[in-house]
UniProtKB/TrEMBL annotation:
The lineage of its organism: Eukaryota, Fungi, Dikarya, Ascomycota, Taphrinomycotina. This is 1,3-beta-glucanosyltransferase. Residues 415-424 have a biased composition (Polar residues). It is an enzyme of class 2 (transferase). PANTHER family: 1,3-BETA-GLUCANOSYLTRANSFERASE GAS1 (PTHR31468), 1,3-BETA-GLUCANOSYLTRANSFERASE GAS5 (PTHR31468:SF5).
Length: 459
């Protein structure tokens, strides 16, 4: 993947006049189904890239590395105003990079989870524990004072097929993070979810995050969507269908990943990505419901989506696709005025359970062991290498220490249950009481799991 120098020089020449200096990054707020600059009142559209050199599971925190200064210069030339970072070390120092981003007018939207701290698809109730909440609250603490933090993701593609039950605990996490921010931060930083684009439950998941009490609803919702490939159109790509489906959605929507690479392959074996969807994404038709998006992805990884090649010495080389994206950003302005946003939409109705959607309207209560963090703060950040929350009957956590209760409460009431009002009262005595029948049930399940292990069934 050796690229000619002319691409690099082309970027420099175009970039020298491509982007005027940004003003200071004022905090971004949500209003209706759109984002706005809290000071100027102008509508804000994400024009960004997904930024995690080394891949989304990389152990390198890009916001704690001096190399971020090289990337900021490229972002400025590209016309980027937002980056998404999938994983950070909450014990690291981020002041230098966050200041560089702020000076360049670039916002950060940050995933709170790491590969060691997330809601488990297979054991969501067990993974929702004090270790997990301490970690994500500590990450909030590490970033809450930066004005250019646009928002936090409480989860990314936790649902990636027809099994959706884990999403109940992701929504509980969303609720908890919102409450923690309200109590411990100087501003209410938006919290949302980044969803895989699964056709069978796309609408149910989106409406689930926008239903119920305001304290539980997401502040925004995003899709990882790759339906526009090459020189496509609004109708062929399905964009028109998404607009129709979300014509009444009341919170901000955006594309948290986009940019199909199933296109013509160049001689150097890289995809020729025309990024013609840019014109559609920032058109008046789209901006009635969507607020821009983030191109996947900044750095070249084995998946062939990368815009910039980072060699072993840390030098950056610009690809043809990067130049194409920059030209598209230059060519397509944001709509004038407010882009047709809706300021007074209503929350969604909670979707009923169905073949491809199973979740609970009444969320599980915060683990009582974690409530001290809500009251007193998360305390010292333990970093990406801190204790994991991924407990299971076959894994007792780091250093033999259990990271979750052995007897988790795993059964909130289903959607449309007649018992919702009672559960929402949060009776502490009932929460802590463990009946003999539940202990027996857990023992039976536990013995069954041990038996399965002894039979060499796959863990």
């Amino acid at each position: 993947m050796v690229l000619g120098r002319h691409l690099f020089y082309a970027l420099l020449l175009l970039g020298s006049g491509a982007l005027e200096s940004f003003a200071k990054t004022n905090p971004i707020i949500t209003k209706g189904n759109a984002f706005f600059d809290s000071v100027t009142g102008e509508r804000f559209y994400l024009r960004g890239v997904d930024y995690q050199p080394g891949g989304s599971s990389s152990l390198i925190d890009p916001l704690a590395s001096s190399a971020c200064h090289k990337d900021v210069e490229i972002f400025k030339k590209m016309g980027v105003n937002t980056v998404r970072v999938y994983q950070v070390d909450n014990a690291a120092d981020h002041d230098d990079c966050m200041k560089a981003f702020e000076d360049a007018g670039i916002y950060v939207i940050l995933d709170l989870n790491t590969f060691r701290h997330s809601i488990s698809r297979s054991d969501p109730a067990i993974s929702y524990n004090k270790v997990y909440l301490q970690h994500i609250f500590s990450t909030v603490d590490a970033f809450k004072d930066y004005d250019n933090v646009l928002g936090f993701f409480s989860g990314n593609e936790v649902v990636n097929d027809h099994e959706t039950t884990a999403i109940t605990w992701v929504k509980a996490t969303t609720r908890d993070v919102k409450a923690y921010i309200k109590k411990h931060a100087s501003r209410q930083i938006p919290v949302g979810y980044s969803a895989a684009d699964i056709a069978e439950n796309r609408l149910e998941l989106a409406h689930y995050f926008n239903c119920g009490d305001e304290s539980e609803r997401a502040d925004f919702y995003a899709f990882n969507m790759y339906e526009w490939c090459g020189h496509s159109s609004m109708s062929v790509s399905g964009y028109f269908d998404r607009l129709r489906e979300f014509s009444d959605y009341s919170i901000p929507l955006f594309l948290s990943e986009f940019g199909c690479n199933t296109v013509e392959i160049l001689e150097d074996q890289t995809p020729d990505r025309p990024f013609t969807e840019i014109e559609a994404i920032y058109s008046p038709e789209m901006t009635e419901s969507f607020s821009g998006g983030l191109v996947y992805e900044y750095s070249a990884e084995p998946n062939n989506y990368g815009l910039v090649i980072i060699d072993g010495n840390g030098d950056r080389k610009i690809s043809k696709n990067c130049v194409t994206l920059m030209k598209q950003f230059q060519k397509v302005p944001n709509p004038k005025g407010d882009g047709g946003y809706r300021k007074d939409g209503l929350p969604s109705e909670c979707p009923r359970n169905s073949t491809y959607f199973q979740a609970w309207e009444t969320l599980p209560p915060m683990p009582k062991e974690a409530k001290v963090y809500m009251e007193e703060g998360a305390g010292e950040p333990l970093g990406i290498d801190g204790p994991t929350n991924m407990w299971s009957p076959y894994h007792s956590g780091d250093d033999g220490q259990y990271t979750a209760p052995k007897h988790p409460k795993t059964k909130p009431y289903p959607i449309n249950s007649t018992n919702n009002s009672k559960v929402n009262q949060g009776d502490e005595e009932e929460e802590e009481e463990e009946s003999s029948s539940s202990r027996i049930a857990f023992t039976v399940v536990h013995l069954g799991l041990v038996l399965a292990a002894s039979m060499l069934i796959k863990f």
